[in-house]
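Dataset card, provenance and construction

Sequences and ligand SMILES were collected as paired inputs. For each pair, a complete structure of the chain with the small molecule in place was predicted and serialized as C-alpha cells. The example below shows a pair involving glutathione. Curators did not alter the output after generation; any descriptive sentences attached to a record were derived from the structure itself.
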Amino acid sequence: MTLDHPIFARWPARHPDRLQLFSLPTPNGVKIGIMLEETGLTYEAHRIDIMADESREPAFLALNPNGKIPAIYDPDGPSGAPLALFESGAILLYLADKTGRFISSDPNTRYETIQWVMWQMGGVGPMFGQVGFFNKFAGKDYKDKRPRDRYATESVRLLGVLDNRLAGRDWVMGADYSIADISLLGWVRNLIGFYEARELVGFDRFLHVQAWFNRGLARPAVQRGLEVTATNRGE
Ligand SMILES: N[C@@H](CCC(=O)N[C@@H](CS)C(=O)NCC(=O)O)C(=O)O
C-alpha cells in the first residue's frame, strides 16, 4: 500500500495503513496526540519542526494550506476514501465520530460538547496564545504593556467562565471526559507553564480549573499524548 499525497514524498509513511499525524507538542498539537492515545487508534506520528518553517514547505502546504500543525491523513476515511484534515477542533470531532468516543451520542449533549470545543478554538486558544507572545516571546520586550494586559484580562475572564462551568463537575461535560477537555488541557498547561503567566492571570484563584487540570494530567493517555512527536521517532 502506498499513500497518494505529496506530503509522503517529504515525510514517508512507514506504516501506510495507519492514520498519519503531522504535529509537534504545542497546545494545538498535543490535542491530537492525546486523542489518539485516549482512543487507542493505531497511528504514525511525524514531527513537523515549525521553528524550522517545515510547516511552510510545499509538501506540508499541500496537506494544510494554512501552514500550521496539527494535520492528519487518514487512509481509511469515512467514505472509504482517504481523508486529509487540518484544524485541531475539526480533527478532534472527526476522531470522536470515527471511534464513537469522547463525544455524547445524545444529540443535545453532542452539540453542547461541540460548543465548548468551539469556545476553546475561538477564545481560549487565540487569547492564551497572545499572552504567550506578549509575556514570554518577542512581545515581552515591548515597552507598552497594554497589548499584554488586554490579552491577560481576556484570558482571566475566560478562566472564570471555565471555572464556573467546572463547579460541581469533574469534566467540562460533567461526568464524561470529552473532546472539550482534550481541547483545553494543553492550553491551560502552556499558560501557567511555558508562557510563565501563572501569576499574571492569578491562576491560583481558579480552584475548579486547578482540580480539573490535575485530574486531566493524571490520565495516562494524556501523559503519553503530551509526548507524541516530542522526538522524531517516526513510529
Ligand atoms: N486553529 C489552528 C491553529 C494551529 C496553530 O496555530 N498551530 C501552531 C502551533 S500551536 C503552528 O503551527 N504555528 C506555526 C506557524 O504559525 O508558523 C488549529 O487549532 O489547528
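Derived descriptions for this record:
The pocket of glutathione is lined by residues 26-29, 50, 55, 67-70, 87-89, 121 (CB under 6 Å).
The beta strands are 19-23, 43-47, 71-74, 83-86.
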